[in-house]
């Protein structure tokens, strides 16, 4: 499993990227509105990238990949569940004894080092 520090670092990079995309393309140069749009951009980014290649840009930078518990790729339904729960933030802040977030536990996924 991936260390918690790497996972937070990857999420920070992804959030910063989404905030910049929202600021430049969607919010009309308004930082407050960009913050609201960034959550939607993060959802789309997560579904598209984790659903196709298994990692977001931040996860790739920190050498992480999201896989199913058995090591296979996640299906689109499980990626969507994981992404929505991640955007709710609360499940991502609740961990089990193995250090997996509730969003990973409920979508039966795991983040691993690559």
Quick structural overview:
The chain is mostly helical and 114 residues long. The chain has 6 helices and 2 strands, in the order αααβαααβ.
Task: Describe, in plain words, how this protein is organized in 3D.
It is a single chain. This protein is mostly helical and 114 residues long. It has one domain (4-113). 63% of the residues lie in helices and 9% in strands. It contains six helices and two strands, in the order H-H-H-E-H-H-H-E. Strands 1-2 form a two-stranded antiparallel sheet. Helix 1 packs across helix 2 and helix 2 packs antiparallel against helix 4. It starts with a helix and ends with a strand. The model has no long low-confidence stretch (mean pLDDT 89).
Give the H and E element order: HHHEHHHE
Strand arrangement in the largest pleated sheet: 1-2
Average predicted local confidence, pLDDT: 89
β-strand percent reads 5-15%
DSSP helix fraction: 55-70%
Helix count, DSSP H or I runs of 4 or more residues: 6
Q: Tell the overall outline.
A: globular
Layout of helices and strands:
Elements: H1 4-26, H2 31-52, H3 57-61, E1 64-68, H4 76-88, H5 90-93, H6 102-106, E2 109-113
Antiparallel strand pairs: 1-2
Keywords for this structure?
single chain, 114 residues, mainly alpha, two-stranded antiparallel sheet, 2 strands
């Amino acid at each position: 499993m991936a260390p918690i520090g790497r996972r937070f670092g990857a999420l920070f990079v992804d959030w910063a990227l989404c905030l910049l995309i929202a600021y430049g393309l969607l919010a009309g140069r308004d930082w407050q509105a960009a913050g609201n749009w960034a959550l939607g951009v993060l959802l789309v980014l997560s579904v598209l990238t984790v659903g196709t290649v298994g990692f977001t840009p931040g996860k790739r930078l920190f050498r992480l990949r999201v896989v199913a518990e058995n090591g296979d790729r996640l299906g689109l339904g499980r990626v969507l569940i994981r992404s929505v729960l991640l955007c709710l933030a609360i499940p991502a802040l609740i961990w089990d004894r193995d250090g997996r977030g509730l969003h990973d536990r409920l979508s039966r996924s795991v983040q691993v080092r690559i």
